[in-house]
Design brief:
1 helix, about 70 residues, about 50% strand
């Protein structure tokens, strides 16, 4: 479990080429031209506020990150 958790986070990094999104198997770099929208959504769950970072790309992909994904 610990090894899988180490590989899973962080999933988002800023590089010179753009935003590097890492998954379980591969990584992808999203350039500035590919980003359609970046927003932070907030909702209440179990009496706590949860925030999500959403990145919408021009090729209709939606990346959603929690605070655990960001490291």
């Amino acid at each position: 479990f610990a090894l899988g958790s180490w590989r899973a986070r962080p999933k988002l990094a800023i590089t010179e080429a753009g935003l590097a999104v890492r998954g379980w198997v591969s990584s992808r770099v999203i350039t500035g031209e590919e980003i359609a929208l970046i927003r932070v959504t907030e909702f209440s769950r179990l009496a706590r506020k949860q925030r999500l970072l959403e990145i919408d790309t021009t090729d209709d992909r939606l990346y959603v990150f929690t605070r655990w994904d960001l490291g």
